[in-house]
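Lab notebook, bench 4. Continuing the backlog of folding jobs that were queued last week. Each job is logged with the same field layout so the records can be merged later without manual cleanup. Today's entry covers Dynein heavy chain 6, axonemal, a 187-residue chain. Filled in by technician R.K.

JOB TYPE: sequence-to-structure
TARGET: Dynein heavy chain 6, axonemal
LENGTH: 187
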Amino acid sequence: CILWSFGGNLLDESKVGFEKFMRSIFSESDTALLPEGSLWDYRINTAAKNWEKWAAIHPQFDYNPNIAYFDLLVPTLDTTKYGYVAEMLFRDQYPVLYTGETGVGKSVLARDILKKLMKENVIPIFVNFSAQSESIRTQEIIESRLERRKKTLLGAPINKKIIIFVDDVNMPKLDVYGSQPPIELLR
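JOB STATUS: finished
OUTPUT FIELD FOLLOWS
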């Protein structure tokens, strides 16, 4: 948990130093038996109560020619790791923010996770921001998927959960006050 909560967003060159720091903290513990090799290559299997390589849960890729190129997700060890952590956070209703370079697959991975969660009574709301995004349109997109509970109260349909996925959250242009109204609405 500590490895991913503090080190999950580190650049690769910083992960080595962070791992050394983690090992130094836990080397003094009698109960923390760390695996050989890189900690980033393992997860804790809570059912078996042991360290397990990510490769053990890495899915096989089956090509489907009917899936559009930009929706195609070829599972790698990294997508397995980041997808697993995000799924755990989503299930426990924590927010998730993917950061990274353009075109590395953040949106495709998030959409893939949300498709899986739809089977568990989750309704995803997809909001794509651009420089032209306006708060009123963002509000309309979100409210269109909610049910009216009372005159002034909206919520997820009964026995469902809503997850709002915002793509390109940095894109809305600044207004005259230096704020980004669509992002302010989400707050």
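OBSERVATION: The helical segments are 2-7, 12-26, 77-91, 106-117, 135-143, 181-186.
SIGNED: R.K.
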